[in-house]
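Side project, low priority. Logging it here so it doesn't get lost.
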Amino acid sequence: MSRVYPLIICGGNGTRLWPVSRTQSPKQFQKVGDAASLTFFQSALERHRSLAYEKPIVVSSVKHRATIAEQLAEVGCDAQVIHEPMGRNTGPAVLAAAMRLIVQDPDGLMVVVPADHVINGDLNQTIFAMVAAAQQGRIITFGIKPRYAETGFGYITDGGPVIEHPGLRNVQRFVEKPPARKARLLVESDIAYWASGLSMFSARTIIDEYRKFDPASVEAVRLAIEHGTLAADGFELSAEHFGRAAAAPTESMVFEKTDRIALAPLSVDWSDVGSWTAMYGISQFNDQGNVLQGDVIAVETTNSMVRSTSRLVTLVGMKDAIVIDTPDALLVTRVGHCQSVKKVAEYLKLGNRVEAERHISVKAAPKPQDHGLQPLFHSEAVQIATARIAPGDSINLAPDNRREVLVSRGALIVASVHASSLLSAGQRADLPADIPVMLVNGGNEEAEVVVMCFGMVEVAEVPAPLTVEAVPQPAPGMLPEPGGPPNVPKVANG
């Protein structure tokens, strides 16, 4: 019997679960529930961890290699890890895993598993019932009977039974994220299934089919493997060659074109957890219909979800609320409006805000004599100080008279209540007077800044929870447009 290898795909940014999910710490590496729960990635590993499965294969971005290693160690799981130098969607990721696997196991079967879904039920019984079909060259996609007309999912329609394989169905067609009316008709037809993102095939079959439909990507991935590098924590694909593969999902590149495709219905509870509303729906409610995670008090509040990771959050008289509090960002929305959260992440990216990329380490601002500003020179007319800011850290400058900052090394975001701007080494800015300013290092290397003040130079001394409030997020209208934001501190090369 062929051996079966779980293939865990860890791509995607999960912007609809901002502010917990960020580009550099996306949804799949976040906790499913409270602080004691596993992450989405770890839960996927555990679902396919038994004597019936071989060691899993994990494909993820090279920038997440430390996170992958840490989370594998936390659950004591050994895996074959492939590091992508850049994201090219699921197609090249699956192809790279298949080409690596076929060398060590020519008859190996792969079960492709998204790393960021929640599944409850006997999934593996159906998977192993399809092994014979996969051995005979079938590509099997697993479908979920829809519970409602969802416009954010893809659908697969049933084309009738596959006679030689009981339980397997022919695929009539694929429907990608239909409008509301079409989604309702699909659900009412009783022959449509949600596309779950799970699939099964042999490494040999998927490579053969890819060669038919996209031989250029097969060659690009082959060269990316040939010129890749092996390290203690996994195999890194060559960026020069991997970047030439078509950035497209396996579904559009192969599944929708091949005559080997088949559908296996799954009888499980499934969610792709594509929004905070979906996260609320899969969580355990209390008697008031609330999901409360962290240090939370809810009074006269119903059907709401509150998650706090760092401080006390209280709700009074709320209904259908979603409140997600992290040390550097707060989201407040309503059940049913959460699909638009990704727009916030888009605004932040447009404004070059570090909060779109990573979690900022927010802590009590240091005093001048500590590790904040270090005085260099002072007189009655001017004072000059310097500071080194580590990646992900920030310092606050208290309101004062005329001030200037000069970035001598690295890059810093200069943020105030009115606007924010990015300064690179050699650039300086006049700071607005009489309002607090935050200097944030959103890069990957230490930054150094010189602060000149015609008056006293201070680092704002505020309690840690107030540090974020001292420098609020700019309103969407104040976000920088390409080419330079309005109303930002004057920047000049110096």
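Brief comment: The mean pLDDT is 86.
Revisit when time allows.
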